[in-house]
Write a structure and sequence with these properties.
By secondary structure, this protein is mainly alpha-helical. The chain has one domain. Helices cover 70% and strands 6% of the residues. The protein contains nine helices and four strands, in the order ααββαβαααβααα. Strands 1-2 form a two-stranded antiparallel ribbon. A two-stranded parallel ribbon has the order 3-4. A hairpin with a 2-residue loop joins strand 1 and strand 2. Helix 3 packs across helix 8.
């Protein structure tokens, strides 16, 4: 038996059952120990990647959303961008042209500047450095828009990278070929943000769940690509169904990471609440 067939045999007979057993145990344990209900599980996802500061989060009544407003924007923006590209840029795996990359850099800088400015508005910094100059007073509205912009940028990068790692004969045309398409995606992100800012429960509830799901989607995509590269299986598939085992592996690594971060944070803080 040659080497490639030997590796495939080992995956089927050893790694796949182990994947299900270990992954199933981790997933069931995580579901058991995290807060109850679907929003409780979404909180646990957010708890692993976000500070969840109450004053910097959106609320349904008194109920805080799973992620802070910046992270909510970031992951809802990423999901929005991925959906758009899945529909209108099927199979295209080329990176955007320079003009679009310039726009992406601009939104990354906005995200970084607003994030840094907000960071220095945290109470510990205000107490330690009361006279520190700031660029401007941060707001949740700015956090939402800059977070969404960054999420759209992430989708523009990860979508072609994911497809480019899977397809046997990838379509190398850019997934976003021009500024017009780029601005359509940005306009879509702005529309989503305006709906969120209405603070209607009919928008906030699905947004909270989708943004938490976005964390899992993005991490699973990243780890799936990593597994494909580890097993040297890039560009060997014609259908997404053919990479189901690698996607399952990426999902299990994602849940393991979330569970590990949840455990470490809970041991340190003893609470499922935000830092402040």
């Amino acid at each position: 038996m040659d080497q490639p067939k030997s590796i495939q045999y080992k995956i089927k007979t050893v790694f796949r059952p182990a994947l299900f057993l270990i992954g199933g145990f981790i997933l069931i344990s995580w579901l058991f120990f995290t807060p109850p209900g679907i929003l409780g599980k979404a909180d646990a996802v957010g708890y692993a990647v976000c500070h969840r500061i109450d004053s910097r989060s959106l609320h349904i009544g008194v109920r805080q959303l799973p992620l802070c407003v910046r992270c909510t924007g970031q992951y809802i923006g990423a999901v929005t961008g991925l959906l758009f590209l899945t529909i209108f840029a099927k199979r295209r795996s080329g990176m955007p042209p320079r003009r679009v990359i310039g726009v992406m850099i601009f939104f990354f800088l906005l995200y970084a500047i607003d994030g840094l400015n907000s960071y220095f508005y945290l109470p510990p910094f205000l107490v330690m450095f009361p006279n520190m100059p700031h660029l401007y007073e941060p707001s949740n509205t700015l956090r939402l828009f800059t977070g969404t912009g960054m999420g759209l940028v992430i989708s523009m990068l990860i979508y072609p990278a994911f497809l480019g790692s899977i397809q046997t004969n990838p379509d190398t045309r850019p997934s976003i070929s021009n500024l017009k398409t780029c601005f359509i995606i940005l306009a879509l992100g702005i529309l989503v943000d305006l709906l969120i800012l209405t603070e209607s429960i009919y928008f906030l509830l699905p947004v909270g769940l989708i943004s938490a799901g976005g964390v899992i989607i993005l991490l699973t995509m990243v780890y799936t690509v990593l597994l494909l590269r580890i097993y040297r299986k890039e560009n060997q598939f014609t259908r997404l169904s053919q990479i189901s085992w690698y996607v399952a592996g990426g999902f299990i690594i994602t849940i393991t990471q979330i569970a590990l971060f949840d455990m470490i944070r809970f041991i340190i803080t003893g609470s499922w609440s935000g830092f402040i």
